[in-house]
Amino acid sequence: MSVLASTRRRLRELRPSTVLATLALLSVSAVVLLPIAIIVFTAFKPAGEVNAFPPSLMPDTWTLDNLQEVTSELPFLRLIGNSFLFAGGVTVFALVFDSLAAYALARIDFAGRKVLLIAIIATLMIPFQATLIPLYQLVADLGWVNTYTGLIAPRAADAFGIFFLRQFFLALPRDIDAAARMDGAGEFRVFRSIVLPNAMPALLTLGLFTFVNNWNDLLWPLVFTTDAEMGTITSGLTLLTGPSGIVPHGVMMAGSLVAIVPLVVAFLFVQRRFIENIATTGIK
Amino acid sequence: MSADHPPVRRYRPPAPLGGRRRATGSPTGRGVKAFLFLAPALIILGLFVVWPMISALRLSFTDASGFGREEWVGLENYVTVFTDPDILSAVTNTALYTLLFTPTAVIAALGLALLLNSPHMPFRSFFRTALFVPFVVSFAVAAFAWSYLIDPQVGLLNYWLRGAGIQMGNVLEDPGLAMPAVALVAVWKLFGFYFVIFLAGLQDIPSSLYEAARIDGAGPWSRLRHVTLPLLSNTMAFVLVFATIAALQAFDQIYVMTGGGPYGHTQTVVMEIYESGFKKLDIGFASALSYVLLVATLILSLVQFVFFGRKEKDMA
């Protein structure tokens, strides 16, 4: 009864403009999700259907052939493992180093703080490609080509993360650490047991961000790894195509599906908080 | 160290709310502590960002190829950057890509954020999630999916549009359509990020301002023009700068979808850097081109910040 009444009230509140906007949003979302749908459905289509005319979205019969073939074309598990090690390693190191630096910039009052902050933000404007060649040479000189250290180390801290966390740390109330300080806690204790636990939303957001960006990065793993076994899933998949595209679409979509599933699942788990966190934390 | 600074603390008046934190310890002590916190990040940034920057500058004046000794060639590489017809064409292509990508992505993101900022919108959280999903998909995967969708023979989108009377033909082989296609893939992949940032910016606008505007008789259009957009100018500057940087650095989906073709019509500056540096091993030239791109990026970012970032101050 009351549910019915409230539904009726809500329907009455729906103005024509809201209905129009909802329809517009539904069609935009459909277009936006179409490539995701085509990946998912094509991955399970038999070869005959993938190249059939007229094309269709859904498979008539479902098959695992494409997934099996992509694992035979590439050292697939190895590449997925590399992606986890690369993106995960970068995320762990970057969160630790960025939060340490951000803490000093936000909450320790030292000479030269402003200048340092500006210098760090300035590195944000450097296009990665501008440093790519000397960076490669440096890593080669260190003997790190085709190693996980070489893949991860250059990304183990980044200006965006430092800036992002600094903004969040600045917004934390200043008094929360006073009690701990009065008990004689040092700067590191305050950082670890007061500031960090209160910054979980920001760390989660930045962590997902860093993980996604590195998992998806093409250029760095592409130029850095000369050994196909050391590539990531993102760079490995491009080996299948080349501009001419020799590999069947079904197999490509199966590979793409495997590459995006970990990210989409991770995102859907934290999505509500993720989007809200961006709203409440520093970027803007 | 601490002997130089007797542990006598000067009196500081209590900080106003939200003001500076009480300083603890001597200035030197704080400096040392701050340095310890900063050291790991500064070492990483110094070694892997700043040092390569300096190296690139040096290499850009040489004929470095990765083998043997490099010779100093003065400004030769820079002269080539500004005179080579291939580079001129790559610069034109990058400018075209930026003009196609940046306004489209920013306007789409802003429009959708304005729609979804209203608390009365049904399925709000579904739409927000759906619009952000492409951002977690890599450019490479986005490129595969879109290439298949617009395939001239078996592409589903191509087939549907043909049904609606729109003939696209072989988009990625068409000199006029290849660039809009790769730019649209970037719009698809990135607009969700700008959308979320706009949402965040919109939430910061106090609702009292809208009420005041309504009392003054301002309609929706006038509220948008005189309240929302001026107060959003800082967010706008942030989004424009990031979108422009993303456009100037276009690479991934182009590498996968067209490889710079057809006939160099999607060859961008970063594609040139990649090819000259890693395929032709002309490292000196690639470094010079990188520096020109860097300076162009800096100038464009500054112009945008100055132009779009100031209005909010005028309002306040």
TrEMBL record, chain A:
Q: Which GO terms describe its cellular component?
A: plasma membrane
Q: Name one GO biological process term.
A: transmembrane transport
User: Where found, per UniProt?
Assistant: Cell membrane
Q: Which residues form the ABC transmembrane type-1 domain?
A: 80-270
Q: Which UniProt keywords apply?
A: Cell membrane, Membrane, Sugar transport, Transmembrane, Transmembrane helix, Transport
The portions of this protein that span the membrane are 20-44, 84-106, 115-136, 148-169, 190-212, 246-270
* Topology in membrane: Multi-pass membrane protein
State if GTP-binding is listed as a keyword: no
Q: Which family does it belong to?
A: Belongs to the binding-protein-dependent transport system permease family.
Name of the protein in its database record? Multiple sugar transport system permease protein
* Organism from which the protein derives: Glycomyces harbinensis
TrEMBL record, chain B:
Which superkingdom, per the lineage?
Bacteria
Q: Which SUPFAM superfamilies match?
A: MalF N-terminal region-like, MetI-like
Transmembrane intervals: 34-54, 95-117, 129-150, 177-200, 231-251, 288-308
Q: Which GO terms describe its biological process?
A: transmembrane transport
Q: Is the keyword Transport assigned to this protein?
A: yes
Q: Which residues form a coiled coil?
A: none
Report the subcellular localization.
Cell membrane
Write down what this protein is called.
Multiple sugar transport system permease protein
Name the source organism: Glycomyces harbinensis
